[in-house]
Amino acid sequence: MRIRKLFKFENAHIVRNCSSERCKHSIHGHSYQIELILEATRLDHGQMVYDFGLLKSSIKDIIDSFDHAICFWNKDDPEYVAACKKFSARWISLPVSPSAEQFSRVIFFWAQEILRQTQMQNGEADVSVYSVIAHETATGYAQCFADDVANAQMGKLVLEDFEFSEQVRAEWTDSELYAKLIRGESFTNPTVTMQVQTEQVQPNV
Predict the structure, then answer these.
(1) pLDDT for 108-131, tens place per residue?
(2) Where do the coiled-coil regions begin and end (predicted)?
């Protein structure tokens, strides 16, 4: 079964090497809508794939990093990168181009890593990211699947290769969020008191 959670943010970028003259030479922005689609083969004690409320913590914080921020490819002109850092309090340095395609890959990658390091407390099982859709405009979006994240031809994604501005980190619920992710520390979901006793059927082996 699959569930979908919608996130929104405003972001600015330049997409170097693209075909559009305006996009590759001028800073511009978009109102992004991100569809995060999770899946699992069984339900938790609340009979959910994953409680939507849990997505309002670390995963929401990391996606919200993009809001009112400028994103740049860390291979871009050093003078441009320095200007982004100097004149914007909120910025993200990416190891890939800040295109809609890469936004969908990056958000998939981050969300999946957070889920992998999350200690579940309510009977959740094999919850994973199925897909991420990044709507850049009303008429265009990019959709990412697990194979795309692992595809080195699309750019290797490594946790250590991302950098967030001090202001972005300060606005997270936990300013150490990404550092903990890099260190492999656990994110623990809240404990749940059972109000109705349930019996989970074990999958066939």
Answers:
(1) 999 999 999 999 999 998 999 999
(2) none
79 catalytic? Reply is no
Residue among 66, 61, 36 at smallest CA distance from 50: 36
Domain 2-188: assigned CATH number: 3.30.479.10
Would you say the pTM of this structure is higher than 0.90?
Answer: yes
171 annotated active-site = no
The active-site residue, picked from 23, 30, 45, 171, is: 23
Residue 23 designated active-site: yes
Give 10-residue mean pLDDT values along the chain (205 residues).
98 97 97 98 96 97 98 98 98 98 98 97 95 97 98 97 98 97 96 86 62
The β-bridge partners of 164 are 92
User: Which of 13, 124, 136, 144 is labelled catalytic?
Assistant: 136
